[in-house]
Amino acid sequence: MRALLTRLLFLARRRRYLAIWSAGLVVIALVIAAAFSPFSPLDRLNALVFDTYQKLKPREATESAVAVIDIDDESIRQFGQWPWSRTVLASVIDRLAAEGAAAIGLDIILSEPDRTSPALAVAQLENQGFQVTYPSSASDLDHDRILAASFAKAPVVAGLVLSEGVDTPPPPAKAGFAFAGENPAAYLPSFPGSVRNLPVLDEAAPGLGVFSFPRQEDGVVRQIPLISRQGENLYPALSIESLRVAQGASSFVIKSTGASGEFDTGQPGMTALKVGEFEVPTGADGRIWVYYTREPTSPLIPVHRLLGDPDPELTSQIEGRVVLIGTSAVGLRDLVATPLTAGFPGVLVHAAIIDQIVNQKFLTRPDWAIGFEIVVAIGLGLLVLAFLPWLSTTANAVIAAGAIAVSIGFGWFAFANYDLLLSPILPAQTSLLAYGVASGVRLLLSESESRYIRGAFAHYLSPAMVEELVENPDALVLGGENRELTILFCDIRSFTTISETMEPTELTVFLNNFLTPMTDVLMEKGATIDKYIGDAIMAFWNAPLDVPQHRQRACESVLAMLDALEKLNATLEKPVRIGAGLNTGICCVGNLGSRQRFDYSAIGDSVNVGSRIEGLTKQYGLSNLIAESTAREVEGLAMLEVDKVMVVGRDEATLVYTLLGGRERAAQEDFLELKRQHDRFLASYRSMRFDEAANDLALLRKTGPEQLAKMYAEYQHRLDAYLVTPPAADWDGSWRAEHK
Q1: Which structural domain, as residue segments, surrounds residue 435?
Q2: For a surface tag, which of 218, 258, 324, 718 has the fewest beta carbons within 10 Å of its beta carbon?
Q3: Do 326 and 384 belong together in one domain?
């Protein structure tokens, strides 16, 4: 089962990166595709971002080229309910003309005859049979004609409303149009009808401009069309028409895609509008983005002040300026919302447009903006995905946040320095969703991988090590690697004899009762359980995770196993003895086996030596033997050197040691005395001073602990032989083992 799970882990980790990137790429594609859906909120979100830009950096206020004559609440109180008599408006027009207004634009519609006109009263009386005598100058009795006369004498731009809800055709345009590129009548949106002034007024006015605002979903006025279409006829906006009249120009020049010097995108659209000395960049639909100042810069002159006593200050506010007539009175409902203000007089929007044109300060959303935002979105999305499988959650979150910050920062930089409207919404949204979805996939895969790791190693590593491996799966190198391991082999002495006395079920219970505490000790000490071979255990330290001081921990594990065995023996009728061997060396560790079946294990010469050392415990009658490669870095334990042995299959001798106890035992005087006598014996023995060695051995066999009796008996047997037939002169004190 462990082999299957580790194999699944191996495959899952190979495919994880592809799964994460695939999910992220799908999200990027879907986000960009959804951005062009009819139900996408992208345009709305972009508009809110552009509003924020203006709030943070509104257009710098300069001296305005526009003055506004305001039909305010106080003027209505003085002159009466709106609409006023046309004679009052005529007085306004005449006064403005006298003060030197360059153009006079009307942000109002005069679509019905003046109900206060004497001509209407005369006609009603005559219809009833009365005879009315009036001056020969009959036109003086018609207030509309009086106003028309004022229109004709002044640079007046009459207002016009183009609307979806009417079918009345508008009057002919006053201005001519020249085209550089395609005729905009082929692509500008058309209105079916209009709300117009009385014909006598429209005919008399030198100019005619559209002042109605296109319908906005949220009611905020951000863009205004400079050119509108009704059928095949084109009509300028009130703002641009007022500038034409003020300059004395006769026509407009409309630049479209494909014109000389203009980029042809393949889609017809307007690029700019030229009037007199001013050129205005526009969107493809002829609209201009209104760039507002924090506060209106145009002089705001109430009508009652204009028609009051002569005021030299008025002349300076009007002379040479474009003058717009509109209303701020709440009851007349000509208040609109802008990015900066909730209730803003509509006439001031037209004034802001004129100021922009005169100062040549424009907000531009170029035709390449959407394509640029898509490219940035894809680039940042790929950047987020590129590092996502490799880095930590925190690092990836920082990268995603950085991508969003780059989107926002670049958009703001383009606006603040170049007046470009580039939105961060699509790039930021793409980065965020790519990060979120890909991170979710990564989390799911990580959870799956964690389950594989827990399933593969829960029975072979301690819970703490399993969790560490879950947190850092890269520490697990699948397929085999060379690492320094400390290997343990342990089995039960005389197990064959024990098993012959038990039924299979009894033997199973016995083995489980033995292996469970031994395994608990090993896992607690950070060992990896490699396998159980009947009554034997193979384990190692320092793989798959690094185990600091693995030699020391392995030796402490042997002592802990002996303590656990002592507790187990207290519950058994016949005590059980074990033999444990430790060796340290470079091994190949990983998933080893065939393609059909493999296991997480270790192989190598060091493993073989460890197994041979465990086998030697029988010959010496010891519970454990520790190879020099392990013992040399162990400190503080009660350890005795046992022999210098050439294990079966090797010609190189290795020192082996045995553990008699832990730190407490190592500090006891009797152990220290034993170690001095034992080391003296080994020195005499290996120096071939066999008589001295025999005397030392006799003392050790008499005073030494019982657990060393068989080892000393083994040495007695060798001494007896060497006293008769000494070894060769170049003997190094080693012993060649004859059995595994």
Answers
A1: 2-55+366-453
A2: 218
A3: no
